[in-house]
Amino acid sequence: MTKDFTQNMFYNGVMSRKLSKPRPPLGARLAELRKAAGLTQMELAELIDESQQNIAYWEQIDKPPRSDAIPKLAKVLGVRAEELLTLEKATPLRRGGPAGKVRLLFEEVSRLPRQQQNKIVEFVSAVVSQYKNTANL
């Protein structure tokens, strides 16, 4: 095995590399919104049915994403479409729930039958209580 192959064998797709130059303002904005939502490039790509390479590209250029991707990005990131295209500070759309991945998951849970919702609430409540108890130690 060569050294390069051995190093790449352990690459798991989550590792990122350092940027050689700063992101342009529009790309930096998209990256900021993605991180604020608690999403990786891969997770965002899956949620909007795009490739991770497209997300990385959009974060590296100073041009907006394709027009068909903007509404999907806005919905997943919890901002208005106009806010993706401007450099002004975004005001997240408050939906009364947690941000990022958790909010998206609970939106899906809200479409389940009430009995399944109650089971999920019981489980999550138990996990949160357990965390609070161990955090206070």
Description:
It is a single chain. This protein is mainly α. The protein has 2 domains: 22-89, lambda repressor-like DNA-binding domains (434 Repressor (Amino-terminal Domain), Orthogonal Bundle), CATH 1.10.260.40; 96-137. Helices cover 58% and strands 0% of the residues. The chain has 8 helices and no strands. The chain has helices spanning 3-9, 25-36, 41-48, 52-60, 70-77, 81-84, 100-109, 114-135. Helix 2 (25-36) packs across helix 4 and helix 3 (41-48) packs across helix 4 (52-60). The protein is elongated and about 45 Å long. It starts with a helix and ends with a helix. 16% of the residues are buried.
Briefly summarize what is shown.
The protein has 137 residues and is mostly helical. Helix content is 58%, strand content 0%.
